[in-house]
Amino acid sequence: MYELMIKMNFDAAHKLCGYRGNCANVHGHTWIVEVTVAGSKLNSLGLLIDFKELKKIVGRIIEQLDHSYLNELPAFAHGGEMSNPTAENLSCYIYKKVKAELNSNYPEVKLSRVNVWESPTSCASYWEE
Fold first, then answer.
1. DSSP state of 129
2. Which of 31, 43, 70, 114 has the fewest Cβ atoms nearer than 10 Å?
């Protein structure tokens, strides 16, 4: 089995609705996103997937988040699918978007995990069993 991981980042603000503490106020992060994929078959060049292609997929997704106020995006707005733009919900959101792209264009490549870092010491992960 082969596994690849790419790391990208974006800047965005958010606040945690219903939270008691400083994070209830609007604040920003430079979010670090790590996407790990796996597969057992390499292509004729010996690649699972070109790093550049994986970065394009993830880049299209995080481009929609970059320099935004996450609470205003439909997925995270009050009553939205995920209702609060926590690191946990961001990791799930990105996972589902990347998975859909891979399933459509690279069915032999399986998404393993998405890690979202909101600071150098705080990370949330999402994966499916």
1. -
2. 43
* Coil, strand or helix at 113: strand
CATH topology for the 2-126 domain: Tetrahydropterin Synthase; Chain A (3.30.479)
In DSSP terms, 39 is beta-bridged to 2
pTM: 0.94
CA distance 15 to 5: 29
Residues 6 or more apart whose Cβ sits within 8 Å of residue 104: none
pLDDT in tens, the chain (129 residues): 999 999 999 999 999 988 999 999 999 999 999 999 999 999 999 999 999 999 999 999 999 999 999 999 998 887 667 789 999 999 999 999 999 999 999 999 999 999 999 999 999 999 998
What's the full length of the chain, in residues?
129
